[in-house]
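Running this now, will post back.
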Amino acid sequence: MSKKKKSITPRRKRYNQQARLQNARSWISKYEGKNIVKGYSQWFGVDLLCAMKELEMLGYHIDESYRQQVKHSLKALQEHRRKRKEKKLEQRQILVESFGDDTFFFIAGYTSNGVPFGITPEEMERVKEGHYGFEDDELPF
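Update: finished.
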């Protein structure tokens, strides 16, 4: 019988909200940092909005300007990630298009006479759809 696998994630980061609120009381008394919201967020592994909400549930006042600043920075981060993802997809599309020419989707190589061989766009569409052009009965093995 094998041993049960032990999680490497700290227990405090696996807590649900109720457990976090219970443990936060003792953690807050020991906290020596300047920004309690950021510290709570990092210690318990939650985002800043969740940390603000839970600290308010514990009776701490969060300044409205700080709340707006956090919301604005999270929106900016989300927009940055979206743009980076779009740019990455665009670069991938350019890379895929650069592998072929008018006849081939992907040029695998050239014969000794200099004639290219590879995958045509029609063959690539069939591969994407899951139709590979042969049946299992046709295979010799």
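Residues 106-133 form one domain. More later if anyone needs it.
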